[in-house]
Amino acid sequence: MRGSAHRGTRADLVGPAQRRLAVLLTRIALRPPRGDYDLSASELTDLLWLNAAEADGIRHIRARAFAEQVEVAVFTIASEQAISDYIVQRVCQRAIRSVPALRGWTVT
User: Fold this and answer.
1) Maximum CA extent, the chain
2) Is 0.90 surpassed by the pTM of this model?
3) Do 70 and 63 form a contact (C-beta atoms < 8 A)?
4) pLDDT (tens digit, 9 = 90+) per residue, 40-60?
């Protein structure tokens, strides 16, 4: 019969590259060498922004300083949590490599 073939839904037509995007939260910690640092949480936030590209999809960064590390919360636009986590890890590593004040810091 003409027209009786399954037409499919939009969900059937969406491939991996066309997944829905969402705002996702990734939390990460940055640890300075020897547990001491001269940067404020605000300064670290600024340094992370300077190392984020528009293509990273980062929408918000917030850092909180604790005794031996700085905890960072980052909101990204991504299709899944693993991608958001990867993006945040990459931006933090980029900042550590390129900013002299972050030399020796590690991502935990």
Assistant:
1) 75
2) no
3) yes
4) 999 999 999 999 999 999 999
Which residues have C-beta within 8 Å of that of residue 31, sequence separation ≥ 6? 68, 69, 70, 105, 106, 107, 108
Exposure string for 12-35, b = 16+ CB within 10 A, e = fewer: eeeeeeeeeeeebebebbbbbeee
Q: Which one-letter amino acid corresponds to residue 3?
A: G
- Give residue-wise pLDDT tens across range 61-76: 999 999 889 999 999 9
Q: Is 22 helix (H, G, I), strand (E, B) or coil?
A: strand
DSSP 41-98: HHHHHHHHHHT--GGG-EEEEEEEE-SS-EEEEEEEEESSHHHHHHHHHHHHHHHHHH
* Residue 7 zone, left/alpha/beta (φ > 0; ψ -120 to 50; rest): alpha
Residue type, 27: R
